[in-house]
Target: Redox-sensing transcriptional repressor Rex
Amino acid sequence: MGQKVISKAVIKRLPRYYRYLGELLDAGVERISSGELSQQMKVTASQIRQDLNNFGGFGQQGYGYNVYYLRTEIAKILGLDRPHKMIIIGAGNLGQALANYAKFEKNSFHVVGLFDNNKALKRKMVRDIPIMMIDELPGFLQKNDVEIAALTLPKENAIDMAQILVENGIHAIWNFAHTDLNLVVPKTVAVQNVHLSESLMRLSYNLKTLEEEGKIK
Amino acid sequence: MGQKVISKAVIKRLPRYYRYLGELLDAGVERISSGELSQQMKVTASQIRQDLNNFGGFGQQGYGYNVYYLRTEIAKILGLDRPHKMIIIGAGNLGQALANYAKFEKNSFHVVGLFDNNKALKRKMVRDIPIMMIDELPGFLQKNDVEIAALTLPKENAIDMAQILVENGIHAIWNFAHTDLNLVVPKTVAVQNVHLSESLMRLSYNLKTLEEEGKIK
DNA sequence: TAGATTGTTAATCGATTAACAATC
DNA sequence: TAGATTGTTAATCGATTAACAATC
Model:
């Protein structure tokens, strides 16, 4: 309680540290200094030390950081140390892609259901995950302790669906619809908006900039 | 030439302005002030005016901004005013999802081919887009003027594939593999990394924080 | 003209980097 | 112990916000 608020910039970097530490672990590296890690990740050693110190001292003077220990601690910070049940609303290509994707983080995210309103999909399975109809959703949420819902829907339906999800006890929404759900949902629900189109537009901007600088063609 | 470098923070916000302006346009709104827009987008009016002024004066004192004009100008800045040919490497669920997705921006991104090494997919079509084999890729790039490649591959293959793409004249990579391609590819190629797992981890962090603050359950 | 709202400069805030004392 | 490297404070840098003169 009364915990220090960690800046968004720091939180944004944590998953990247987590990924690099995983790769180091796979490569059999036991310890690493902020200096070495900074070279690999192309950030400053100072930033790494500052970031980590937001959460307490994970390193040791004269030694550096133990890779396994540091990774475990970051996992805890990110809440990856326990399973989260997740459902996916929208069983199209993106929904199905996420169903596979979320398994990546082995013990953290369990996709327990896909929902769609296309009756042709009813009772089908994606891997071992059943596709259910939207009208089964409230009942399903009542029976199962689901924390996270991924939304891969047209934006017209996303806001109403978010409402339904919140009413039925969902605590986190991973939103792929073209709208900013966090402006619509109560602050007691975590929201991450993934706007793929924005990413593509930034790529387009960068491409255009390279052209204008004469670095292309 | 010798153009002012625009900060990443500004570029990151442009697509969001573009989206809101599109919605205003659909709603038949003709003009808007930075103050009104700031309320809708939950940012400061000051930031909107500062951001836009990086590119020149799009507004008019006492009037505000013409929605259609401003949107058109932002489109130009982002390079959305001309078509970009795009291919997708990896014809799994994510690749196919992107094939539909990229069409969203009507005249900006044309997906002209999907590539995979799964022979079962050979010669299939996704919508009107042919799936081709990876070994056909260099020939295809030689014949077609493709600027952008989306990469939906396991990370093991992504780096080699990026190399091949760059050698064959690709200028922009939209990377969905779990690795930082921008650290690997020459600076004359634009890269946007989309790390979905990082987004999910941030969601998990926010969820955990809400729990700890006692706002859940 | 008076009112509204931009464009732009100046002030503030926050994040990053540098430096170094603490300590393993 | 000497050397290495963290943890942490101080300095710098950049981004955001506030303020207001310019101007439609």
Summary: Chain B touches chain A through 62 residues (CB under 8 Å). The domain at 8-78 of chain B is CATH 1.10.10.10 (Arc Repressor Mutant, subunit A). The first strand of chain B starts at residue 31 and ends at 32.
